[in-house]
Automatic annotation (TrEMBL):
The Tol-Pal system is composed of five core proteins: the inner membrane proteins TolA, TolQ and TolR, the periplasmic protein TolB and the outer membrane protein Pal. They form a network linking the inner and outer membranes and the peptidoglycan layer. The keyword ATP-binding does not apply. It comes from Thalassotalea algicola. The lineage of its organism: Bacteria, Pseudomonadati, Pseudomonadota, Gammaproteobacteria, Alteromonadales. GO terms for biological process: bacteriocin transport; cell division; protein import. The gene is tolQ. This is Tol-Pal system protein TolQ. Keywords: Cell cycle, Cell division, Cell inner membrane, Cell membrane, Membrane, Transmembrane, Transmembrane helix. Residues 93-205 form the MotA/TolQ/ExbB proton channel domain.
Length: 225
């Protein structure tokens, strides 16, 4: 408790600029932690949905029935959005006068590619902010530290006899800014790296499904023609 009170006292004694730096870093930290919990929930749900959908898809479920069930929902996310986009375009092209199976499959693949791009953009929401916080927070904290130490030495130069007790509080409050910069940056960098890896794995899984689904549709179209 005494350590917490001393840090709070140092914040109150800091200059206006150093206080501003500390408040900015505190806001960055709170925002990052909020986004970390939100992204973790979204990515975990996407991974669970991927496994559930693939289990059902490869169990031999009727694709038309599966499409009708999923497309009837108000919100469609993840791999289901790729499946719906691909099957919808496939059905549309098959009803047209296109005779080439490859043209039908290429159109279907393009539709799924667009859906994939949208899903990846959605999964990567907030990740650029985390990367930015992880990159700039230490420098913002260092700026507050440099400014606080500079003010301490300026004040020290105005007295004839300098003591450690005179300069120590100013240096301590300045170093708190650096500590807060690291406190904001480290979780942001760790979360960014972890979530980026998860997004990459999901994107690869989505891409593999696209290729496999396109092969199934190509075989079906070739048989019909």
């Amino acid at each position: 408790m005494s350590a917490e009170l001393s840090i709070f006292d140092l914040f109150l004694q800091a200059s206006l600029l150093v206080k501003s730096v500390m408040l900015i870093l505190l806001a960055f930290s709170v925002a990052c932690w909020t986004m970390i919990f939100q992204r973790k929930k979204v990515l975990d749900q996407a991974a669970l949905q991927l496994k559930t959908f693939e289990d059902r898809f490869w169990s031999g479920a009727d694709l038309t029935k599966l499409y009708n069930e999923i497309s009837s929902r108000q919100q469609i996310h993840g791999i289901e959005s790729l499946f719906v986009a691909g099957f919808k375009e496939f059905a549309r092209l098959r009803k047209s006068n296109i005779q080439s199976p490859q043209a039908i499959v290429d159109g279907t693949h393009r539709a799924m590619r667009v859906a994939l791009s949208r899903e990846v953009d959605s999964l990567e929401t907030h990740l650029p902010f985390m990367a930015t916080v992880g990159s700039i927070s230490p420098y913002i904290g260092l700026f507050g530290t440099v400014w606080g130490i500079m003010n301490s030495f300026i004040a020290l130069g105005a007295v004839q006899q300098a003591t450690l007790a005179m300069v120590a509080p100013g240096i301590a409050e300045a170093l708190v800014a650096t500590a807060m910069g690291l406190f904001a940056a480290i979780p942001a960098v760790m979360a960014f790296n972890r979530f980026s890896h998860k997004v990459e794995k999901l994107e690869n899984s989505y891409g593999n499904f696209m290729e496999e689904f396109s092969s199934i549709l190509h075989r079906q179209t070739a048989v019909e023609h």
